[in-house]
Amino acid sequence: MKKENIPNALTLVRIALIPVFVVILTFGHSSIMHILAAFIFAFASITDYLDGYLARKWEVVTNFGKFADPMADKLLVMSAFIMLIEMKMAPAWVVAIIICRELAVTGLRLLLMETGGTVLAAAMPGKIKTFTQMFAIIFLLIHWTLLGQVLLYIALIFTIYSGYDYFKGSAYLFKDTFK
């Protein structure tokens, strides 16, 4: 495989792991299956970091990668949160806020690109949000419930704040909305 294809292959691996992760949690009701799911989620999360790092390092950023990488991240995290609701490990209202923010910011990114080609880069609050979400999911899955819950609520705070921050920085797009 040519090195320029490796970041996209990692993204595809992450997407392919989502149904495996969901099936394990759907049919595996033991702690061992939850730990296996946590390992799969952790591996998929590492590919998220690695594909972006390699694409930038090797200067092989592609349109597929620009589209598929953030989509894969959202699909992975949203699937995990939905499964945590099913397993009664995460409150639905917290997950609803997280999912709504992800969809709203994705829509904002599309609007920014459509109106001027601006790319909304991830700021530090968004990176903290992602980090705390991923670790909350892992810790909840391995039944480190207190740490997982603390991280989940920290993730919620950064989810709300980073969403606000992105929209505040793009408020000029909506200045004529209510005139």
TrEMBL record:
Chain segments annotated as transmembrane: 75-99, 135-161
Keyword check for Transferase: yes
Described purpose of this protein according to its UniProt entry: This protein catalyzes the committed step to the synthesis of the acidic phospholipids.
EC number: 2.7.8.5
Class of enzymatic activity (EC top level): transferase
Keyword S-adenosyl-L-methionine: no
Compartment(s) where it occurs, according to its Swiss-Prot or TrEMBL record: Cell membrane
Gene3D superfamilies reported in the protein's UniProt record: 1.20.120.1760
Membrane topology field: Multi-pass membrane protein
Pathway noted in the entry: Phospholipid metabolism; phosphatidylglycerol biosynthesis; phosphatidylglycerol from CDP-diacylglycerol: step 1/2; Lipid metabolism
GO terms (BP aspect): phosphatidylglycerol biosynthetic process
Source organism, top-level taxon: Bacteria
Alphabetized GO MF terms: CDP-diacylglycerol-glycerol-3-phosphate 3-phosphatidyltransferase activity
Pfam family for this entry, one: CDP-OH_P_transf
Protein name: CDP-diacylglycerol--glycerol-3-phosphate 3-phosphatidyltransferase
GO cellular component terms, semicolon-separated: plasma membrane
